[in-house]
Amino acid sequence: MRLAPDLPAARLDRSGYELVVDERFAGPDLDADRWVPHYLPQWSTPDRSAARYALGLDGLTLRIDHDQPTWSPEYNGELRVSNLQTGVRSGPVGTGSGQHPFREGLVVRTAQPKRRLWLPHHGLIEVHLRPSTHPRALTALWLIGFEHEPEQSGELCIVELLGRDVAPDGRARVGLGIHPFGDPSLRDDFVQVPVAGDVRAGRTYSVEWKPGSARFFIDDVLVAEADQSPAYPLQLMLNLYELPDGSPRDPCEYPLEAHVPWVREWRRATR
């Protein structure tokens, strides 16, 4: 990954793109033709995988409540998640066939019919978000392979913000990059970059995804560049996690909230 100061000064140029998705979460209902309001539901049960969220004129609010159940105590301990994703698939209950097998020994608990809803393939993907700054919170947008073929499992992470990495004045370090998982054509290349401004006020995080490369931007400023990229369509995973740290869960600290006014996809103009 190339980072500043080894990168040329550059700003994001959208002039060669056309906007094809402008998701503003205006409601009153979530677009079921675009989003599945569950987190990797094949490895859990519907009551545990369901997202808690609200829609409104200012966009999407993802929420973790004090009474929210753990996502998968069987496989992921005390982790809690509210997540929206744009595709899902699995094999039958009792098999090991499902998206994003993040550890050995996973077994499908709730079978998922194949749903390919919104899967960009190259172009420009961006999100404007205000993260939760709770020290156990993680706010993220990452893209993963649908895994129609097992090796099509790479991840393109646009933004990953840990609440504990946000300073009192709002400055933070933002994670971004590429994870191969089961894709032998990719190598792990993940970094954290500093954000000088106040992330609590909302920032725009973008990736310009081309064959063989990915350029990452924060507020339209180039911050990182990779010389590789997944070569297949990717689904979106927009999420708020509560990461267990062993400390008590004080009801007064809830809900944890992350705000997403919009998510956009741009494609190269054909004319």
Taken together, the total number of domains comes to 1
Element order: H for helix, E for strand: EEHEEHEEEEEEEEEEEEE
CATH architecture: Sandwich
Give the fraction of residues assigned to helices.
under 10%
Strand content: 35-45%
* Anisotropy-based shape: globular
> What's the end-to-end separation, in Å?
32 Å
Described by strand count, sense and barrel closure, the largest sheet is: 9 strands, antiparallel
Q: What's the mean pLDDT score? A: 96
CATH topology: Jelly Rolls
What this model shows, in words?
With 271 residues, the protein is mostly beta strands. It has one domain (2-268): Sandwich (Jelly Rolls), CATH 2.60.120. It has helices at 46-49, 73-76; strands at 2-3, 17-23, 52-56, 59-64, 80-85, 87-88, 115-116, 123-130, 137-145, 155-162, 172-179, 189-195, 203-210, 213-218, 221-226, 234-242, 256-268. The strands form three sheets. Strands 1, 2, 3, 4, 8, 13, 14, 15 and 17 form a nine-stranded antiparallel beta sheet that branches. The two termini are 32 Å apart.
